[in-house]
Design a protein that fits this description.
The structure is a homodimer. With about 625 residues, chain A is of the alpha+beta class. In chain A, about 25% of the residues lie in helices and about 25% in strands. In chain A, helix 6 crosses helix 8 and helix 10 packs antiparallel against helix 13. The longest helix of chain A is centred in the middle third of the chain and has 24 residues.
């Protein structure tokens, strides 16, 4: 008997469709082990929550330290979760509820819930496992027994024990599944989103949603408990804010009148400042009708923060400490690196450089002696290792396509002497070092930097895929500061951040004469090439605000209430918004923000579950006084 | 000099426009002193947050214990708030920022911020207070000095000290104010909402917003830290859910296709259950186009909770403990009182009885011996003290109007013997006691109870205003359980709660034969006559769900995705939604939910600040393929 059991065990383990990761990783908001010495510890009630303990090696400590797993059974009719049974439970009568992950030989049943997996064993002829399809929801009563030593599964947290089934009740049966829950044959995203209620059972999604919840809770604790912030909920049904993204409109019963869904709580938070709520934050739902841009959602969440009587340094320091204490991955100790927009552009050709790899421009303008006094002229070289050899035709074509988009000249390594002459070429190679090849961009200063910036990213992918670029695994946060206040738009000046951004005090004298040279008090937080947040010190003076609106061709009448708020005693203030979808996806190593959103829309703004948007009834159209036109 | 100062002090105190409440109550989320022995204490990091300490008497303890006020200065250029200076700060150089609340005789300036008030004194001829209008935002540098003993103001928390001004900088001037910030001449709500950015500076609003933030944070801590819940954000742009309130529609760029703004995350939370996220909650923004109902907002916030493998008792217990630990006012110790819908109706004539006063029906059906077997017949008596005397013509008219709405007979005390005859009248008076007068309702059981229920509320107001009804000051929570599953609607059966509510297992056999007799597993939480929450155990079996949809005349095709989620292994589950606007307004003793919402809409759904909803551009209409019609 014993030997038969042993055989069954081994078969069971062998064919068990659960990968190791799947078994141990259910509740782990962190994949890599991180040195935890300098990390702050967030104390939860009676339990110590230290994100650094969340490594695989420490999983047993983790379960006890991070979550009081017993409390996950409160208010339910289970006595234990599927993840918590250990040798100390042997002899206990338990009630478990969960999904049938796997069953084998009518004897072994692997039961799963959000907290883990446990093997249950039939010892009773009345129970027939063969009738129970996978993913059936069952309630099992039984007793915990120790597995024989040679059948212990070290890869499972519960692998030392099993539950001998006394009774099994089917709580809900399964008619058919859209796909199996096997990590090694994960279906395509479209199918997974269409049946998200099944997809959510994958350990990855379980983990991601928990990381999101914990990270945002950590942020709230930092802001409310440590620094006296007040979370204030502001409306989403409002009037249109001029000068921003396209806003969804919401028809009302008042004929011809529409709300706009807010693209951010910007106006409200500034009015709160005027109202004396001097330390505000909100985990705010925002809406932008920008479905054409990839990896964007029509609705998204931002951590929106604003405070009075502060300056750029105050806000940046706050966010650094907030992230350092709440992020579930290791971050460098504050202060984070800071870089002006100008420096970012002339070094990386982008306002959101990825600092996980080292691939910088060399400014070679000094070589072009006849252009030294031309402020609009720029010359940049991008050196890269010669080892990569000659670029393939495919890459060269990509570079050519990219160059077409910008009014500047791009010269590849092999054409350098031909196009610039021997002398210039030699000077350039001197500057970048002999072991390097180079791509050069010449022309309008900004455009040549931007163009070479795009090429830099292509080149980085190429070098990475050939293991010729060292890439840091950590998050590399970076503040980009001193953005320009205005950009040249199609119809005059446009705002670079938004119309409420304060000009840099040192540049105030240029506003009328050379507006494009005015820097602003705006800043972006960049992580590994992603813009994860942005903000500014705001204009609190109503005359200045009105002046800026006029420059931007925005009718001040549309913002009368807002200008009034500034006129009635509004304190100086500033703030920031962090994009939580992106931030959490970085914390989860998720490929897309859709992997950290429970029910995301697909690329074209459709809900894959219900098919929304849908047509509406004639009655609704009548009520809202609208009709559909071509 | 000294005597002149004294005189000025006294004048200043006398005319100071700040009421005592205004001075001491800025951050007090609790007005009454409550015995704190049995109240649970929520530990914030390093500080003990005990809502029971928040009484006036204990305000000094409060400020130290509840908030680490120093931390409110982090990331700002002030060194202290206006509320924190005490004799121990004497001699310190401080920087304060705030609003000019009051100034007097060019010598005294009362500075206000969100944390309190401090008196500042000019000792320098260069500073001219007479040029500074009220509500100007200033930065003051100076040193803390002790007030002379006879000038101490015990009514101010900072009344023992003052700040001698070294320098004063105007940070933002004031052009004109829509109204003054004087509690004793508070303007009408319409004007206050129109200039909410000024109105928010009143201590009442400052307090309410803080109570709201703290209460919701307490709830999160209870759910996440103590009981392993996961906060999951779900979409608000979705498809229409049949069988509920009117939902706002949102046109999209896809011609003729609209999102609906969710009226609750109901479908999503149930799909999360199917997805194995077994302990979910969300502080969820919800939308209902019901502007015609008073004290409703087109968007509102609910604490939305759902968990798997639970039952009615599990959910009710959870909510009781949640509220007991997070509410900032004293609540009775759980378990709260529970009452069936049937009992509530036959005792109070409503499904949300106010238990703060004792005014109950007496069932007098047994007196009508010929009707004993008529199940549809009901007879209720509402006894009230004779002391009130004869009801005035005005009240009698109100009662008559109310009676008109229901198909039943209402008999006033004075008409009892005339209309029912001496014998019946005597029997009734025997039942209710001689010292009482009575109003009787006869007829259809439900309608007579409902009608008498309305009359009960009128009578209660009358008795209260004459001090003839003892009213408890506490919150009296009550669970009303076992609501009917269906109601008789205009076009057949309608749902009493929503289409996803589980029938009571004991009544399953009646679903086809006598559906109106089927009780459900739905429950409401009532506080002092307000419905503050409601929920149910849900249907998890897809066949039963389909059957219920058919009974309700809802096309199951519109919920195909949802039915599929039940088919794919959905566990048994249930949940609740608490209306946070109402709950917080009870905690704040606020008259209206608008007093606990930063930027509420007015009765007709308009935003008083911006005037939204507004007309939209032709370009927007074209983009969304809509036109406006009559």
């Amino acid at each position: 008997m014993m030997s038969r059991n042993l055989m069954l065990y081994k078969q069971c383990i062998k064919i068990c469709p659960i990968s190791t990761c799947c078994i141990t990783d259910h509740r782990i908001p962190q994949k890599r082990a991180i040195s935890s010495v300098t990390r702050p510890i967030t104390k939860y009630k009676n339990i110590t929550y230290n994100p650094c303990l969340l490594s695989k090696k420490l999983h047993d400590t983790r379960l006890k330290d991070v979550f009081d797993e017993e409390n996950c059974n409160n208010y339910t009719y289970r006595t234990h979760t599927c993840g918590e049974l250990r040798p100390e439970h042997v002899g206990k009568k338990v009630t478990l509820c969960g999904w049938v992950q796997f069953s084998r030989l009518s004897k072994f049943l692997l039961l799963r819930d959000a907290y883990g997996l446990i093997q249950c064993v039939v010892n009773n002829d009345n129970i027939n496992l063969s009738n129970i399809p996978l993913e059936t929801v069952v309630k099992i009563q039984g007793s915990v027994t120790l597995r024989p030593k040679d059948m212990i599964n070290r890869k499972m947290l519960t692998g030392e024990v099993e539950v001998t089934i006394d009774s099994l009740e089917v709580l809900n049966s399964v008619e058919s599944l859209p796909f199996n829950l096997r990590d090694y044959q994960k279906p395509k995203e479209q199918l997974r989103l269409q049946h998200r209620y099944v997809d959510l059972r994958f350990p990855e999604m379980q983990k991601n949603l928990r990381v999101r919840s914990h990270m945002i809770h950590n942020m709230r604790r930092f802001l409310i408990e440590k620094h006296g912030f007040v979370e204030v909920e502001t409306p989403t049904l409002f009037c249109r804010t001029p000068g921003g993204a396209r806003e969804f409109v919401v028809p009302t019963h008042h004929q011809g009148l529409f709300y706009s869904l807010v693209q951010s709580p910007q106006q409200f938070k500034q009015m709160l400042m005027s109202g004396g709520v001097d330390r505000y934050f909100q985990v705010a739902r925002c809406y932008r009708d920008e479905t054409t841009r990839p990896d964007r959602q029509p609705e998204f969440t931002q951590l929106d923060i604003e405070l009075s009587f502060t300056n750029v340094d105050g806000i940046l320091t706050m966010i650094e400490e907030l992230l350092y204490e709440s992020f579930v991955k290791s971050l460098p100790k504050p202060p984070f690196r800071r870089m002006t927009y100008k420096e970012a552009l002339s070094t990386y050709g982008t306002d959101k450089p990825d600092l996980t790899y080292d691939l910088k421009f060399v400014n070679i303008k000094s070589i072009f002696s006849d252009k030294l006094n031309d402020n609009d002229f720029g010359a940049y070289a991008l050196p890269y290792t010669k080892e990569i050899g000659k670029l393939s035709t495919k890459y060269k074509e990509q570079i050519r396509q990219c160059a077409k988009k910008y009014p500047c000249k791009i010269i590849l390594n092999e054409n350098l002497s031909k196009q610039l002459g021997e002398d210039l070429c030699k000077n350039i190679l001197n500057k970048i070092g002999d072991s390097n090849a180079v791509i050069v961009a010449l022309g309008d200063n900004e455009n040549s930097a931007l163009c070479l910036g795009e090429i830099r990213q292509m080149l980085a992918s190429l070098l990475k895929s050939n293991n010729m670029l060292e890439v840091k695994e950590n998050i590399e946060p970076l503040w980009v500061v001193e953005f320009p206040l205005f950009l040249k738009g199609e119809n005059g000046l446009e705002t670079c951040h938004h119309p409420f951004t304060a000009p840099h005090p040192d540049d105030m004298h240029l506003i009328d004469s050379e507006p494009l040279k005015v820097r602003s008090l705006a800043y972006d937080l960049v992580m590994n090439g992603n813009e994860v947040g942005g903000g500014s010190v705001r204009v609190h003076n109503s005359s200045l605000q009105e002046k800026l609106l006029n420059i931007l061709n925005i009718d001040p009448g549309t913002l009368a209430h807002f200008l009034n708020a500034l006129k009635c005693g509004c304190p100086p203030h500033g703030g920031i918004a962090l994009g939580l979808d992106r931030l959490v996806s970085l914390a989860c190593n998720a490929e897309s923000i859709r992997d950290v959103i429970a029910f995301p829309k697909s690329h074209d703004g459709r809900d894959p579950l219900s098919g929304a948007p849908n047509s509406i009834s004639e009655e609704d159209k009548k009520y809202y006084h609208i009709s559909t036109v071509k």
